[in-house]
Specification:
By secondary structure, the protein is an alpha+beta fold. The chain is 43% helix and 16% strand. It has a six-stranded mixed sheet with strand order 2-1-7-8-9-4. The chain has a six-stranded mixed sheet with strand order 19-18-17-16-21-20. Helix 5 crosses helix 15 and helix 11 packs antiparallel against helix 12. It is elongated, with a radius of gyration of 33 Å. It starts with 7 loop residues before the first strand and ends with a helix. The relative contact order is 0.06.
């Protein structure tokens, strides 16, 4: 029988598995090891040599799950059984959890015993009544997969303080949860037993870090009896063994499981809110809004039994086929999510839980959960992309990954396997901190945001009115341009002298301009600009508490910089030269080998507060208003008997402009394409950037063809198309698989795909040809009948099969040799 005060046991399995002289040597060191792991253990440790052996049928033993890192103890006969996979040739060290100052547990699984500080076993809150009945006289049976096949090691804990305290703590948790929440107790929030098993395995991982934090904070049971040097020795010992026990993939899975549980609890809360705020008639009508509500069958009776809400969600998840197509789910999520972002601006606070809930939020939330469960390989893969690359990442990076990654970035394929999000708080980069110091705070800070919605407050009240006005003016000018130019995909701009970020990466889509700001470890934060609006959504500022480390003025200047970059890409022609494209290069002062396309000079963006500077600003904003007003698109009345050309009608339709009888459409003059001098072409860029940083007086000429960026190559091809007699027009800043559209006065059309394989030099295959044909078929489906030509232009060459495909589809193939 184990002593009442014992919480640490040492023992071995006997001569069939280990040599006694080796065990005796290990016994000499066991006090040192246990003390460094658990603190002063003199009064709590007991060596029982070889435990009592109990017979068990081999088939019966195989019914129990062998725990690898962490799992539950299971009910067995008159006690509990723990089945582990530890090395049986060594002296074993088993500890029963002892807690200081009645610290509360916040999980429905209570840590119970640890074997060799490697395999963790937990009590299951669902078995609390059984534990209460045996805690005064507990029989614990332990089996080793590599040990006896038909025998169990038996330990009897009679009136053992550590055992009784562990059960009592779990009972207290259950009582607290009856008040605090309806979905987190008894594992009601979890999908199935496999989900619970994975979650408990994750607890075993987090326990390793939490134990180190307890040692640092003096929360070990006997920490008051030893000095700081001894405490440091304990911490150092635990840190040294951490990398041998826990991999970065283990932490990535832990992050995933915590994130998934919070998403589920958030979904249940959303449904509960909708049911509470709706009548039965409204709930019935919901079934017409989305297919998901037909399956969920929400009704008022669910309020009386929360398990009915969790059950309907679990049932829905189980009805989704295991081989369901990811692309279909991604398309649905992307459509709903993008519309949700575009149509509504969040003015509430995730922290205060006052976001309004829509049915679209529910569809997105549930779709995200399906994506997590079916397409992430339990948190180790990015859906549709591949395995997450943890090379050169630390534990904290991995723990933050799922807490901070955005569904928006996943479904739009904006991030790659090695892209990890950054977390800023308290004026520091949390990613750079040791995980054991931050693991508690990270989980608590993110849980409310994760449970309620992916999006946070979308406003910024610390940027001064003057700067805010400039940002809006610049963005308005950018989106009012009729150049139709897209920002080059993944185009980057350096941000010198910032405390955190080294460069910004821009990605443009039909409705959004998404900006990723990268730090010195190439981790990113996300900002977004919704087309049609006049300001940013300030995800960056709100999500990362920028004001903790940046002055209000610097934050304003950063957003000024971002808006100016957007404006220049929308306004300037010959971007390879006027925006100083520097080709694919490794970002300066960033720990990465990945090359990026960089534009704009390496310059400072800090505002200069001088009289000359103020004069520049006044001139610029005065010029901006004059410039924009003189080149506005308009309708012009025609002379009697005249009709607008087909080309003008098409251009008006693409702009959504109504042309009444007897009028024609005059598109906005595209600045820079009116044969202006180089000095005039440069002006628009310099006038803005002069506000932010000193510019070189002369801008280099366009690079040679081989060094053109994809955007520059497209502009080069546009000139060729115009030389053929076509007017080039864009489709609302969205290419739809077609890079250039041309129309002649007689209404005939030309659709062009441009391919500039700068680095690889690979030839064009038939897939590009077929892709263009598909895009043209889709775009011309509802178009008025007219002559249609198709063309592919490349800077490399075509394969034989590409030529055959082009001939059969009547697509003209052109190389730069033909147009230069």
């Amino acid at each position: 029988m184990i002593r009442e005060n014992t919480s640490i046991l040492s023992f071995w399995l006997g001569k069939p598995f280990a040599k006694e002289n080796k065990i005796n040597e290990q016994r000499k060191n066991s006090n040192i090891v246990s003390d460094k792991t658990f603190g002063n253990t003199d009064l709590r440790k007991e060596d029982i040599n070889i435990p009592k052996l109990i017979d068990i049928d081999y088939e019966e033993l195989n019914k129990f799950y062998c725990v690898k890192k962490a799992g539950f103890v299971k009910k067995y006969k008159d006690g509990l059984i723990a089945f582990c996979n530890e090395n049986v040739t060594n002296l074993q060290l088993m500890s029963v959890s002892v807690y200081k100052n009645d610290m509360k547990t916040d999980n429905p699984a209570q840590h119970f015993i640890s074997i060799n500080n490697n395999t963790e076993f937990y009590l299951d809150v669902r078995d609390i009544e059984y534990y209460n009945s045996i805690k005064e006289d507990l029989n614990l049976y332990v089996s080793y997969k590599k040990g006896y096949k038909n025998k169990l090691l038996h330990f009897n804990f009679k009136k053992n303080k550590a055992v009784i305290d562990s059960v009592n703590r779990l009972h207290t948790y259950l009582e607290n949860k009856k008040v605090e929440g309806m979905y987190s107790k008894n594992f009601d929030a979890f999908i199935d037993e496999d989900h619970i098993t994975r979650f408990v395995e994750g607890l075993g991982v987090s326990d390793k870090f939490e134990t180190i934090k307890d040692a640092i904070d003096g929360n070990l049971y006997d920490s008051g009896s030893y000095d700081q040097d001894y405490k440091n020795e304990i911490v150092e010992h635990q840190l040294t063994g951490l990398s041998n026990k826990i991999s970065k993939t283990d932490v990535l899975k832990l992050s995933f499981e915590n994130f998934l549980v919070n998403k589920l609890i958030g979904l249940y809360g959303m449904l509960h809110t909708i049911i509470t705020n709706s009548t039965e008639e409204q709930l019935e009508k919901l079934k017409d809004d989305a297919t998901v509500f037909k399956v969920l069958k929400l009704n008022k009776e669910m309020l009386n039994d929360p398990k009915k809400i969790t059950s309907c969600v679990k049932q829905f998840i189980k009805t989704v086929p295991a081989d369901a197509d990811y692309e279909t789910l991604k398309k649905m999520l992307k459509t709903h999510q993008n519309k949700n972002i575009k149509d509504s601006k969040r003015n509430g606070s995730a922290k205060d839980k006052n976001f309004s809930i829509s049915t679209t939020d529910v569809v997105i939330h549930l779709g995200y959960i399906l994506l997590l469960l079916k397409y992430t390989e339990l948190g180790t893969h990015l859906p549709g992309i591949g395995q997450i690359d943890t090379k050169n990442k630390n534990y904290t990076d991995c723990y933050i990954f799922w807490q901070k990654v955005r569904l928006f970035n996943i479904t739009n394929n904006y991030i790659e396997q090695s892209d990890f999000p950054i977390m800023l708080d308290k004026g520091k980069i949390i990613n750079n901190e040791d995980l054991h110091n931050e693991i508690f705070d990270i989980g608590q800070k993110q849980s409310n945001i994760i449970k309620n919605t992916e999006y946070i407050l979308e406003d910024c009240d610390i940027i001064n009115t003057d700067t805010k006005l400039k940002i809006k003016e610049i963005l308005k000018e950018a989106l009012n341009q009729e150049s139709g130019l897209l920002i080059p995909h993944n185009a980057c701009v350096e941000i010198p002298n910032d405390f955190i970020f080294k460069y910004a990466r821009f990605v443009e889509s039909k409705d959004f301009i998404t900006i990723f700001l990268h730090d010195e470890k190439d981790r990113y934060a996300t900002e977004i600009f919704v087309k049609g609006e006049d300001d940013f959504r300030y995800w960056l500022y709100n999500e990362h508490n920028l004001s903790d480390y940046q002055s209000d003025e610097n934050i304003g200047n950063l957003y000024l910089k971002l808006s100016a970059c957007i404006r220049d890409w929308k306004v300037l022609i010959e971007r390879d030269s006027t925006m100083t494209c520097r080709g694919p290069i490794v970002p300066r002062n960033v720990d990465t080998e990945r090359k990026r396309w960089f534009y704009l000079p390496r310059v400072r963006y800090n505002k200069i507060n001088t009289k000359e500077q103020s004069k520049k600003e006044k001139i610029f904003f005065s010029e901006t208003r004059v410039f924009s007003g003189e080149r506005r698109e308009h309708k012009r009345k025609l002379q009697t008997g005249m009709k607008p050309s087909k080309a003008q009608i098409v251009l008006a339709e693409n702009r959504g402009v109504y042309i009444p009888e007897g009028y024609t459409y005059v598109r906005k003059s595209v600045w820079g394409k009116l044969k202006k001098s180089p000095r005039e072409i440069k002006y628009r860029s310099k006038s803005m950037h002069g506000l932010l940083f000193p510019f070189q007086e002369d801008i280099d000429k366009a690079e040679k063809l081989i060094n053109m960026s994809p955007g520059g190559f497209e502009e080069h091809c546009e000139k060729y198309i115009e030389s053929l007699g076509y007017q080039v027009y864009k489709k609302w800043n969205y290419d739809g698989g077609i890079d250039i559209r041309g129309i002649k006065d007689n209404g005939s059309r030309l659709f062009v795909q441009c391919k500039h394989y700068l680095e690889s030099g690979n030839p064009i295959g038939p897939d590009v040809i077929r892709e263009l044909q598909g895009s043209v078929d889709l775009e011309t489906k509802d178009m008025e009948k007219c002559e249609i030509d198709k063309m592919v232009i490349t800077s490399t060459r075509y394969t034989h099969k590409a030529s055959q495909a082009a001939e059969s589809l009547n697509i003209k193939l052109v190389t730069t040799d033909d147009i230069c």
